[in-house]
Amino acid sequence: MLLISVLAAAIVPGIALLAYFYWKDRYDTEPVSIVLKMFLTGMLIVLPIMIVQRSLTLWWGDSPFTFSFIISAGVEEFFKWFVLYHIIYNHTEFDEPYDGIVYAVAVSLGFATLENVLYAFLQPMTFGDLMMRALLPVSGHALFGVFMGYSLGKAKFSVGKSIRNHLWLALLLPIIWHGIYDFLLLTVPSTWIWLVVPFMFFLWFRGMRQVNNANAVSPFRFLKREEEVKS
User: Is 226 strand, coil or helix?
Assistant: First the structure.
């Protein structure tokens, strides 16, 4: 029974957040099968990420800045960006800006969920510890996915040099926000909660603005309104 409770506490937050952002798609929801495929892909990249991170730690050390912005944020966000660009970016189902957010959040939460499960079983953690991880690292990964997906959506529907600029932002912005989050945890251990919690509120505020902005420019919003008028 305890095993089931711990497993549920590790998995449910990621599933709940994925469902939340999936239902935020107002006009043209994505096929559940593809969203789940990206969620599972996020899980599959955990092992190669761990291998690369371990190698970089042995080569470069684990100073707070190096670990936060390169080994942790840099490697994790690059792998997420890489699979999104090569699997989803040119997919026919990626047909409105908000789709970038849905798929990026799916990959990010797949990664965060398996990471949460590994923490739960490989390290001594209480139920409270898992709840804290749900509120901070797991939701943090979801928001880093929002920032990545928002820029991917802008790149998908831009022209000219703007495409390349937004693709770079889709990689760099999540690394910056993720790196700041990790750096705060490593450098202010005694009072981290007083900085990290307001920082997370800021990320949620910024993320929800991007969710609304992406929905606001959906090419399907006019079709939805026409259907509502007809009905």
Answer: helix
Q: Two tokens at 150?
A: 């928002």
CA nearest neighbour of 147 among 169, 168, 162, 130: 169
- Name the DSSP class of 30: P
Closest CA to 218 of 156, 148, 145: 156
DSSP 29: P
Contact 46, 151 (CB under 8 A): no
Mean pLDDT by 10 residues, the chain (231 residues): 71 94 91 96 97 96 94 98 96 94 98 89 68 81 98 95 96 98 88 85 97 91 53 47
pLDDT of the residue at 1? 59
Q: Which of 172, 177, 44 is nearest to 111 (CA)?
A: 44
pTM value surpassing 0.90: yes
Q: How many helices (H) and strands (E) does the chain have?
A: 11, 0
Eight-state DSSP code of residue 190: S
Q: How far apart, in whole angstroms, are the C-alpha atoms of residue 169 and residue 163? A: 10
Q: For residues 37 and 212, what is the distance between their CA atoms, to the nearest angstrom?
A: 25
Task: Dihedral sign for Cα 147, 59, 185, 106, please.
Answer: positive
